[in-house]
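User: Here's a chain of 343 residues. Predict its fold as tokens.
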Amino acid sequence: MELGLYTFADTMPSPETGEMISPAQRLRDLIEEIELADQVGLDVFGVGEHHRPQYSVSAPAVVLAAAAERTRNIRLTSAVTVLSSDDPVRVFQNFSTLDLLSGGRAEIMAGRGSFIESFPLFGYDLDDYEELFSEKLELLLRLRESERVTWSGKHRPAMDDLGVYPRPIQNPLPIWVAAGGTPASMVRAGTLGLPLALAIIGGQPARFAPLVKIYRDAAQRSGHDVSALPVSINSHGYIADTAQVARDEHAAYYMAMMNMLGRERGWPPSGRRQYDASTTLQGALLVGSPEEVIEKILFQHEIFHHQRFLMQMSVGAMPHREILHSIELFGTKVAPVIRRELA
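Assistant: Prediction complete.
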């Protein structure tokens, strides 16, 4: 199993002091986090795209290119690229450039995003939400397949035998479909024969097993080799030396972030009781000691038989020094055991 991290590079106020890190400092911290993840032997680091004040990355490829110059082995992916409001040609060029800079370590995780700010920002109509993603994913895959492309659609000017450069080292450049848990998204990814990144940020992970089955069944019906299509489970988590320290260090920052989003989306507020329930073996949060996180990753592997697990540690205003220690534990204490157990 590949093990890694992803982040949105949050810049939210601390629930304890009210202070907020500057975007410049958060980005410098982020590069240090990616560099450490590479040094301790983690496999993947993902950086999300957002267009709102609580997050400091709107251009993942730029951040990942900076990280490419400070790392040697770790794979570098968006998490996600909001493809619906972007130009697939530019996305492909950006990540091809990243692939060249990194020596063949770039990936694209394409999704529709969990926020809508990018649609009016780039002049798209939310009424076209579904159609935009389908059409742009089709073009992105066409660009990956061929150096010269002829294509036409509704939401972008047509292309008539146009070359798209530079070409990446990897052939093909890895493209994952990121999904939040709708059956239609599972069917789309499976039918296209693309790897699936499934975000599980609440509820009981076991309830997502039927969705992964829908994905694999759709892939099989479409003639794809299911054994060659990896699934990634992407979840919130945090690791400290002991379970109690992990929960105490993480809880306030996580709840502040989730309750902020909840006020926007009409979710009921959650407190420490709900948080602690989510950290149990059957819950969605992978928060605890290295031993607890190992147990939970292996428990979920029995459910999903997935090939990749990515953890989002840096939520809200989590202090940088604590994130660095959590990364170190993930790479030195958790990852070796997972790899040995699943070898």
